[in-house]
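Try this one yourself first.
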């Protein structure tokens, strides 16, 4: 019927509009779903990237830790001690407590002084004579309370009965030569004397090498003071005496 024609067209338009709206809504929803999926994918990708970066950093830290431990182990091998032993080594204070005294530098014994005349006495002993040759042994003894050193030749001067000097010519024998000697208290050292009893060119014609010495003054090596000994060994022609170093 004609009166109803407008209503029919309006109903058809409404249905078309509803269908179109439905299609647009579906399309929009579909687009939103795809965007959400894309966003989720981006988030997941970012998480994986961050996880991978974290793993890399953790791996680097682990590697550094491993290297440090390896270096510590190597240091222990070089020193022959483990790092624990190195860290627990005793300190100087602990060493003092364990030994009961403070470590000091190397201790040196006090220097030994020269044997002085005041700490020596002597004696003369006749040796075995030869043809026109005479020998004697001069011995000195340390009478002091400490060890002293003796090095060199004795000095000699022949004396007459009044204590006046007689002509004396002392020659030092090179063999044996001097050597450093340490004389503890009451220890001795000796030198050998040699002289002739046959007149020499320095004696007057027909002389018997008189006067005979009555004593001898002995001066230790490097000393200026001397001590006197009796001389009971006969004449000394020319006053010539050979002497060895103390030995």
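Now uncover the answer:
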């Amino acid at each position: 019927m004609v009166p109803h024609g407008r209503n029919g067209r309006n109903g058809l338009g409404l249905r078309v509009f509803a269908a179109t709206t439905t299609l647009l809504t579906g399309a929009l929803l579909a687009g939103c779903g795809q965007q959400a999926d894309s966003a989720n994918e981006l988030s997941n990708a970012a998480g994986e990237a961050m996880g991978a970066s974290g793993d890399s950093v953790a791996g680097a830290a682990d590697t550094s830790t491993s290297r440090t431990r390896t270096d510590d182990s190597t240091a222990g091998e070089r020193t022959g001690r483990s790092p624990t032993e190195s860290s627990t080594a005793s300190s100087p204070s602990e060493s003092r407590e364990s030994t009961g005294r403070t470590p000091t530098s190397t201790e040196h014994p006090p220097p030994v002084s020269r044997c002085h005349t005041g700490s020596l006495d002597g004696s003369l002993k006749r040796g075995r004579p030869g043809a026109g040759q005479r020998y004697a042994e001069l011995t000195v003894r340390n009478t002091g309370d400490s060890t002293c050193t003796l090095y060199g030749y004795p000095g000699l001067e022949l004396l007459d009965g009044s204590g006046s000097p007689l002509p004396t010519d002392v020659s030092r024998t090179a063999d044996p030569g001097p050597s450093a000697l340490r004389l503890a208290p009451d220890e001795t050292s000796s030198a050998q004397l040699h002289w002739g009893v046959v007149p020499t060119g320095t004696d007057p014609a027909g002389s018997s090498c008189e006067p005979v010495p009555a004593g001898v003054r002995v001066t230790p090596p490097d000393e200026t003071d001397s001590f006197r000994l009796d001389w009971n060994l006969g004449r000394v022609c020319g006053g010539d005496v050979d002497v060895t170093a103390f030995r």
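Discussion: The two ends are 168 Å apart (CA to CA). The first helix runs from residue 5 to 79.
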